[in-house]
Amino acid sequence: MGRWTDAPTKFISAGGVDFAYRELGTRHGGTPVVFLVHLAAVLDNWDPRIMDGIAAKHHVIAFDNRGVGASSGSPSDSVEQMADDAIAFIQAMGFAQVDLFGFSMGGMIAQEIVLKEPQLVRKMILAGTGPAGGEGISTVARVSHWDLLRGLLTGQDPKQFLFFTRTPGGIEAGKAFLARLKERSENRDKEITIAAYLAQLRALKAWGRKRPADLSAVRQPVLIINGDDDRMVPTSNSHELAWRLPNSTLFIYPDAGHGSVFQFHADFVPRAIEFLGR
């Protein structure tokens, strides 16, 4: 099957954009799982343990948003445009229906996709995310800038602060996650540019100020995951999503922050596979 750290980067054109993507797992049978990426992330930011684990049972695909990483075009500054791009990418790949795994900003994109093109989506996993207008989403930039500064002052990756708690368990999980992200040694993706990062912050600010959508129309099964101490997208947003989505299941990991699925990947992967295979 290969491993995520060895998956070649490919390109496909859609809507005037050359999207960079990687895929892994069997193409035969089942519904493809499309991964929607978080703020400032490129293909190399996906945890290899999650990608390899889900690819053992499913065809998984991740791509760079327009103007991010190796994808062409100007970076988008709205979640709605990112959803349109994701729909164009999925259709260009020839998929009639997909499952969506959206982490953080990717979970917001997933919500827009299912509202715009409900027939395209079979199931969704939403991790570390929240609804439009959710608590604290419009101020993600403030949290991000502060933790970027903390990272600079301590010589650490900001994700150690943004994604994980400052308890012994959270700190160790963060170090292990960051080490896994470095396992791919060749043909790595391009880092996000400052311009693209700022565009995404504008998108999150607008999403956080947007009027909440009527999610009662979403009939697809949804698995909602978060940690009990998410600083980036406060955990209350996960409870709000579970209340708004009529066919949803909520699971909260203890002693975990925004990156709970990475911290508890050994539990999350079988949980996700069971949900997708239900």
UniProtKB/TrEMBL annotation:
Superkingdom of origin: Bacteria
Coiled coil feature spans: none
Broad EC category: oxidoreductase
Keyword set, alphabetical order: Oxidoreductase, Peroxidase
AB hydrolase-1 domain segment(s): 32-262
An example Gene Ontology molecular-function term: bromide peroxidase activity
The protein's Enzyme Commission number: 1.11.1.18
UniProt protein name: Putative non-heme bromoperoxidase BpoC
